[in-house]
Specification:
This protein has 19 helices and 21 strands.
């Protein structure tokens, strides 16, 4: 991959990091260093990914927690593997139950959007199949941060305070008391630079490590989740937890500019990124001015989301095959719908999410693209008493249309927004990449891949580049770094352009590329507290 190593569309005062022995890239420096520590202790990229992920539940609880879901793409021995550890809805949760509760849509908070958490099972499954160190050693850095505490970083402090303000207005009732006791014990969010610790979280992580996550699904932790659910009007039961197993699945791909771009299959919406890239590969961006390039990207994303929102669901409920949606004839047909003017597709209105992404690589050639989330920041607003387990609200993405494949139903996995990405060329790993952020994620994947492969940007520049985000209809949000003349041209083409006040909604990503000599090139976001730890 050829690129200008010094070109930056706008200065983040960061450069691509190069190393040979190992690398961890994620949104929080303490978590990245925890993963690097595991590499130096003899762990591989998989061990480092688990350690980093566990640490992120402690040092970035505004975006993820033990009670969320996870997906991973793992490169081992020149082969790619996919792990889907997203949980299904409770068996007792039905449309009629929702109606009885007086709801005409799935709320953001409380028990109704809570599905089975998959994160602990993901750590155990990755460790058992590919790890080299015991889970007790791999989770130790996270346990120590939870026990001893750590200082709040700037981006973390901002989102924690925002969540506290929102939850203070939205979360009413006894069942939400434990969120405030856990995350705002002083009656406020912790301040930037203030020390924070969570002994309940530490104890829960230790139990997960000691039992290889079994206690979360069949033991003491499962019983505590069940009891909390029963006494506060929830639907989640110990039987739902005990029957859950993460799934090893076959990743999906499209070939773009000679590279294979890999994503997880549904119920995740990595398919949206591949649908867009399949459309976009029919255009020659080397001869296209940047105004038209932005317009074409936006139109392709809109078409991809129109299909994604219609068809993506729990795989057993999908009405079309992935291979049919990614076929060349279908891409050509969709490509013909792009004109010089903004079109009006008809998917739903995307929401924003709360997610963490990480990438790891070791000197043996192993690489991991991993993502986990509680969704919408802290998630459902429910914390299991005495455990530090903040439960996610991923069920908010279910449809209530009985004819839709993503309709709410017992034991179904919802449409999922968190997606890890991976790049290969000629059956050899180039490396992991990802951009977290709810419905921004496939849009971020497309922009980062095109920045690297179409516009020859180095990894850091590819992440630094100003982003756009299609929201709904003809509405497109753009970052303030985007040149004014491009925004004006998009408006003339019929796009409803909204200048974003900040960069919080445009995702936070990481990249690790490996060259033919085994040298690693890593980058992380200027939009977060991110760090590339390497040696």
């Amino acid at each position: 991959m050829q690129y200008d190593p010094l070109y930056h569309p706008f200065s983040s005062k960061r450069q691509t990091v190069y190393a040979r022995n190992g690398m961890v890239a994620t949104s929080q420096p303490l978590a990245a260093q925890a993963g690097l520590e595991i590499l130096k202790r003899g762990g591989n990229a998989i061990d480092a990914a688990i350690a980093t992920a566990a640490c992120l539940t402690v040092v970035e609880p505004t975006s993820n927690g033990i009670g969320g879901d996870a997906f991973a793409l793992v490169w081992v021995n020149n082969q790619i593997y996919g792990l889907n550890s997203s949980g299904p809805s409770p068996q007792s949760l039905t449309l009629s139950e929702l109606s009885k509760a007086g709801h005409h849509e799935i709320p953001k908070y409380g028990w109704l959007p809570v599905v089975v958490p998959g994160i602990p099972a993901a750590w155990a499954a990755l460790s058992e199949r590919f790890g080299e160190l015991p889970l007790t050693k791999v989770l130790r850095p996270a346990i120590e941060y939870a026990e001893r505490g750590y200082p709040i970083s700037p981006t973390l402090g901002y989102y924690w305070n925002s969540a506290f303000k929102e939850y203070s207005n939205e979360l009413k009732g006894e069942k939400f008391r434990y969120w405030f006791e856990t995350f705002a014990p002083r009656g406020r969010a912790p301040e930037i630079g203030e020390m924070w610790q969570s002994p309940d979280h530490a104890q829960t992580l230790q139990i997960i490590a000691d039992t290889k996550a079994q206690a979360f699904y069949q033991g003491d932790l499962a019983r505590k989740i069940d009891q909390f659910s029963r006494t506060t009007g929830g639907f989640l039961r110990q039987e739902d937890l005990s029957s859950f197993q993460p799934e090893w699945v076959e990743p999906i791909k499209v070939n773009y500019r000679g590279y294979d771009v890999w994503e997880m299959p549904p119920n995740g919406h990595g398919l949206v990124a591949l649908l867009a890239l399949n459309i976009l590969k029919g255009f020659d961006f080397s001869t296209m001015d940047r105004n038209e390039a932005y317009h074409t990207q936006i139109e392709a994303i809109k078409l991809a989301f129109a299909d994604g929102k219609k068809f993506i669901a729990d795989p057993k409920n999908m009405t079309l095959r992935v291979e049919d949606l990614l076929s060349e004839p279908y891409a050509a047909k969709r490509r013909q719908l792009i004109s010089q003017k903004a079109a009006l597709p008809s998917p739903g209105s995307p929401d924003r999410g709360g997610t963490v992404y990480l990438a790891t690589a070791d000197s043996k050639g192993n690489m991991v693209s991993y993502i986990q989330s509680n969704y919408m920041g802290f998630g459902s607003g429910l914390v299991v008493p005495g455990t530090g387990i903040a439960l996610h609200n991923r069920g908010h993405n279910f449809s209530l249309d009985p004819l839709h494949p993503n309709c709410l139903g017992p034991g179904k996995k919802p449409y999922h927004t968190i997606i890890p990405g991976f790049l290969t060329k000629d059956s050899q790993a180039v490396g992991p990449f990802g951009v977290m952020g709810g419905f921004m994620q496939p849009q971020g994947h497309v922009q980062v891949i095109m920045n690297c492969l179409d516009f020859a940007l180095n990894p850091q520049a590819a992440l630094d580049a100003p982003r756009w985000q299609w929201v709904e209809g003809k509405t497109v949000e753009i970052e303030h770094q985007l040149p004014e003349h491009i925004a004006q041209d998009l408006a003339r083409r019929g796009h409803d352009i909204k200048w974003a006040l900040g960069s919080g909604g445009f995702g936070r990503g990481e990249i690790i590329w490996r060259d033919e000599h085994g040298v690693l090139a890593g980058a992380t976001e200027p939009r977060t507290d991110g760090c590339v730890a390497a040696w």
